Structure formats: structure tokens, C-alpha cells
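Good morning,

Attaching, inline, the C-alpha cells for the sequence recovery test we're adding to the shared suite. The designed sequence is right after.
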């Protein structure tokens, strides 16, 4: 059945493609944050263990919201590690970083998600796609706040 929501097929496709990149970045950041939750050690263990859990729990909800927006636009959401690896710009974790390195890497990941969301705004604005604009604004606000909180843990 044809989707008739006031956007062209090309506009919907372009937005869905951008949201797919946002989904891949968000899922990769979720996995990295969950990994760090499990493997953090050191004097900041309890604080970071709890902070990472809060962040990955929020990301779990976010990936669902992003995928459902892709579906509402009429496209299939990517849903495999292989697809995410092709789409994401967040580096997959290797090795066992220190707690401070975990914080620094998560700052970069949070900032990357903000940039990915921001890159989608021209297409969203052109299509007058307010629901996606709202989703992007919310994601950016959360990731900017998370990056600030993580950065604050690194300051002395």
C-alpha cells in the first residue's frame, strides 16, 4: 500500500537512510556501553558501573524509537551486526581499556551520535518531517548531556 504522509518517496528514503546510520551508531554505542558496564574496574567502579547501566538502558529504548520511525516511513530497519558495522562510524571495542579510557571512548561515541543526528537535519527540514526532527532533537539533547557527564568524570 502506498504511503501518503506528505513526503515524496525519495524524501522518505533519504531520511530512512540517515536514521539507519543513527540506529547503527546508537546500537554500537549501546553495545560498547554495556561492555564497559560489565568490565569496568578500579576505584570508580561503582559510580561508573551505575552510570554505564543508566546510559545503556536509555540507549536500548532509543534504538527501538529510531527503528520504529524508520518503519513508520515505510522502510525496513537494519537489525544485524553486519549491517550496523557497515553503517556505523563508532569504532567497535577491542582490548580492555582502563576506566578513564572507557570514559574517553564513550565521550567520542556520544559526540558521534550527535553529529550523525545533526547531519540528517537538512533532509528532515526539506521534507517538513517534524516527527523525525523531534526524535533527532531529543537524541541530540540526551547525547550532549551524556557526553558532558562523561567528560566531567575525566576532569581533575
Amino acid at each position: 500500500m502506498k504511503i501518503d504522509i506528505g513526503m515524496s518517496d525519495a524524501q522518505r528514503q533519504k531520511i530512512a537512510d540517515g536514521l539507519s546510520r543513527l540506529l547503527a551508531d546508537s546500537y554500537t554505542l549501546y553495545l560498547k556501553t554495556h561492555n564497559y558496564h560489565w568490565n569496568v574496574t578500579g576505584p570508580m567502579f561503582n559510580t561508573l558501573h551505575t552510570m554505564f547501566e543508566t546510559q545503556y538502558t536509555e540507549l536500548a529504548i532509543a534504538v527501538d524509537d529510531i527503528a520504529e520511525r524508520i518503519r513508520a516511513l515505510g522502510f525496513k530497519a537494519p537489525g544485524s551486526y553486519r549491517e550496523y558495522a557497515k553503517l556505523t562510524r563508532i569504532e567497535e571495542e577491542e582490548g580492555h581499556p582502563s576506566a578513564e579510557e572507557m570514559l574517553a571512548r564513550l565521550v567520542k561515541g556520544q559526540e558521534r551520535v550527535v553529529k550523525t543526528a545533526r547531519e540528517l537535519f537538512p533532509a528532515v527540514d526539506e521534507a517538513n518531517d517534524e516527527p523525525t526532527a523531534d526524535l533527532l532533537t531529543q537524541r541530540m539533547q540526551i547525547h550532549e548531556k551524556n557526553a558532558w557527564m562523561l567528560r566531567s568524570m575525566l576532569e581533575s
